[in-house]
Amino acid sequence: MTDNSNTKLQERINELEKKVEQSTHQLEKLSSKLLVAESQRSSFLSNILNEINNPLTSILGLTNNIKRMVYSNPELVHKQANLVFEQAFELDYKMKNIFAAAAIEAGSVEIKAGKIEVIGMLHEIIQDLHFKSKRKTLTIQKVQEIDGEFYFLTDPNLLRAIILNLVGNAIEFSPQGASIKINLQIDDEYIVFTIVDQGDGISEKDQKLIFSRFKQLDEGVTKSHQGTGLGLSIVKEYTELLGGTLQLNSSEGSGSTFVLTLPCIADHSDTFEEVSFSDEELF
């Protein structure tokens, strides 16, 4: 074999060694990411079990108490029944988020267009979450550009899930006696929800993590906030599916502002299916 051939062979061997080294490095990085992902999923599943078991155990205990009660004390029965509703709502809320996350993970979310009355929907969501805001004596202030009804062409179920999670998140992370402000702007092309809370705020570093499906900033046995940690990841995915944008403005110690913008088509001349909402004053 000539010196020239030996040189070319050595060059090829060197190239192969370099490629093997690069591939090994990439595999090590991938393996590390998989280990982190597996750890996050394991922590997530453990948290999910607790978040389901806790309200379920409470429901079973409360209903058992009601069964044993003397019905001559309707006030106590009513109080226990309210507690059952609250725990059942929490469980339903968490289970819907779990199913939504599973559908997103599987890529099986389908957009089903329909028209929903936006202002009534917002009132209904705040009424559903009233027991949570009442525990903290929170004030919810709403500002909107129009009165009456406004019908919005979108996927009603996805929109409701987005707003429910954003408002629920604001309530969960607000301190006692705080104020939450919800601003609703509507025109012929877009609808914009702005939700402002007075919570602890989120650092710039952590803002990249809160939309992760399997990651919570507040984890472990010492966690101070309830929830599966799925809400904001679902909000982000659903917003993108609906062709909208979600902006977060926050810093540590200054609260958080979420701005949701969705494309909107309004046509007040159509006939819509009647939706019943509570007339109770919410604000």
Keywords:
alpha+beta; 5-stranded mixed sheet
Roughly what percent helix?
40-55%
Helix and strand composition category: alpha+beta
Distance between the termini: 90 Å
Strand order of the largest sheet: 2-4-5-7-6
- Stretches where pLDDT is under 50 for at least 5 consecutive residues are 219-224, 266-283
- Oligomerization: single chain
| Total number of beta strands | 7
Q: State the helix count.
A: 6
What about the largest sheet?
A: 5 strands, mixed
Overall mean confidence score, pLDDT = 77
Radius of gyration equals 25 Å
Shape: globular
What is the N-to-C order of secondary-structure elements (H for helix, E for strand)?
Answer: HHEHHEEHEEHEE
Strand content: 15-25%
Description:
The structure is a single chain. The protein is α+β, with helices and mostly antiparallel strands. It is 51% helix and 16% strand. The strands form 2 sheets. A 5-stranded mixed sheet has the order 2-4-5-7-6, with helices on one face. It has a two-stranded antiparallel sheet with strand order 1-3. The longest helix is centred in the N-terminal third of the chain and has 66 residues, at 3-68.
